[in-house]
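Look over this one:
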Amino acid sequence: MGLSLVIYPSILDYINSKNNTAIVKSYSESTQTLSNDEINNELEKARTFNEFLAKSSLTDEEENDYKAVMASYPDILNFDDVICSIEIPKINVNLPIYHGGSEEENDEKLKKGCVHLRNTSLPIGGESTHSVISAHSGYPDQVFFDNLEDLEIGDKFTIHMLDKTLTYQVCEINVVDPDDSSKLKIENGKDCVTLVTCYPYSINTHRLCVRGERAENDELTTVATVDEGTDGKEAPHTWWDLVYFSALLILPMLVIYVYTGTPFYPFKVIAKWFIKKIKWFYNLLKKI
């Protein structure tokens, strides 16, 4: 039983990671089918949203426009609720980013990936923008931003959005109280993305904020695309998948063998229990 508790999270993390990879792939496939006009239309809506957020004050005429634009948020860059994806090579993160919503909606979405903080700039880049992306640490079913604290000043991460790849370089790392939003404000002329997770790990009394500022794309950085030769289908399982699951099956069998002398001991116990229950039920029927 103890061994199962150790192995179970690893199996879930592996399965969920595969699912997130499929979601990122599906997003890439969907956006690649868009025409240039459709892409420009989505970007224009996102830019308008970001421009209103960056305004320090609004005129009476702009007030109604502001409310209308803010209300349109769920419909901007919406591809099955995914806005874009984030890749952090140093900590092996490749996750979808979902639209932010109510607290209950965010709780559900954070079980699947990252969530964009609704009242921050949409992650399309541009001057005077500051997007905030949140994800769990210490979640039992999957690794999300668990290793975010390993990032250092100068490390890079990328946002894959429509047909664009936006690279950000870590320029600031802060630990703040949960209700402290002072590090999330838009700074005039700057293009920033801040990654947020609970901190310390599994204690969650504070928030770790890792800010990146827009940098030049690396030469090897490309927009996530569908693997050639898959015809748009999910990538097939590899030999490493087989090795991984074989190890998960063989390891507990070896441990059981060491302690009981036979790897089939659990099956014998289950069979005896099952036969015992059948006999009990049979005897009960005879008495009726």
